[in-house]
Each structure stands twice: as structure tokens, then as C-alpha cells.
TrEMBL record:
Membrane topology: Multi-pass membrane protein
Transmembrane domains' residue ranges: 122-143
UniProt domain Type II secretion system protein GspF: residue ranges: 31-143
Cited Pfam families: T2SSF
The protein's name in its UniProt record: Secretion system protein F
Keywords carried by this UniProt record: Cell membrane, Membrane, Transmembrane, Transmembrane helix
Keyword Nucleotide-binding: no
InterPro entries: T2SS_GspF_dom, T2SS_GspF_sf
GO CC term, one of those recorded: plasma membrane
Subcellular location: Cell membrane
Species the sequence originates in: Pseudomonas aeruginosa
Length: 144
């Protein structure tokens, strides 16, 4: 494996780490708004890339990289769900694919936002349920 390939894989891994729930929600909200205003999908993705990358100056930002990748794939004739499949969780991918088949991407983006919010709420509850008792046990151990 060459150094160039290794760096490309590292860049991809970093972008995937930066493309977490809140960032995906931002993408879905922007796409939903643009599609609601009857902007063509490929035009929306190209414009979003320009905005997120600051006209190409910062192409390695998570949203810039994802929108550029999606733009290339959509321009090649692939569906958006296929373009996003390597970036988003399976549940969101299937919702977007269903939205494409039904012709209602806006509601599928809204549902993806609901899934992300629900996952964040569940994770917060799990962390609270485990961290707080652990903290209390640590305090008891310190006092003994």
C-alpha cells in the first residue's frame, strides 16, 4: 500500500467521524428545503458543496466531502440513496431509498431527522443511567 492510499483512507475515516448525527441532520434539512423549493437535486448538491467547502477552499470538511461525493454519483445517474449509503447508517439509507421510490424525499429526510433525534435521546439516557451510578460508587469508595 502506498503512502497516498494510506492518506486517502485516513482522510475518509476522519470525514466519517465528523459526519455524525447533528451534521447529517444539517444536510437533510438543507436538502429538504432546497427540494421543497423545487431546486434540482444535482444543482442542490453542487451548490451545497460550494457553500460547505467555501468555494473549494476547504474540500475536506465533512459536509463538503459528502455533498461532493453525492453530487458526483448523482451526476453519474445513481440514486441519492446509493450515493449516501457509504456515509449514513442503514436505517437512514433505507428511509431515503423509500422516499426516492415514493417521490417524497422531503418526508424521508424529516423521518431521518426524527431517527437521529431519537437515537441521541436514547444514548443520552443510557449514558445518564450508567455514568451517574458510577460517579456515586466512586464517591462512596473515596469516602471509605
Amino acid at each position: 500500500m502506498q503512502l497516498h492510499d494510506l492518506m486517502a483512507r485516513l482522510d475518509l475515516a476522519v470525514i466519517r467521524l465528523q459526519f455524525y448525527g447533528a451534521v447529517r441532520m444539517e444536510l437533510y434539512e438543507a436538502l429538504s428545503l432546497l427540494l421543497e423549493n423545487r431546486v434540482l437535486l444535482d444543482v442542490a448538491l453542487k451548490d451545497m458543496y460550494k457553500i460547505y467547502s467555501e468555494n473549494g477552499k476547504k474540500p475536506k470538511r465533512a459536509l463538503a466531502a459528502v455533498t461532493y461525493d453525492c453530487y458526483r454519483e448523482v451526476a453519474d445517474g445513481k440514486p441519492l440513496s446509493k450515493a449516501l449509503s457509504k456515509w449514513v447508517p442503514y436505517q437512514e439509507y433505507t428511509l431515503i431509498a423509500a422516499g426516492e421510490r415514493s417521490g417524497d424525499l422531503k418526508s424521508s429526510f424529516d423521518n431521518c431527522g426524527k431517527i437521529i433525534t431519537a437515537k441521541q435521546d436514547i444514548l443520552g439516557a443510557i449514558l445518564l443511567a450508567t455514568v451517574y451510578p458510577t460517579f456515586l460508587m466512586a464517591m462512596v469508595c473515596v469516602m471509605l
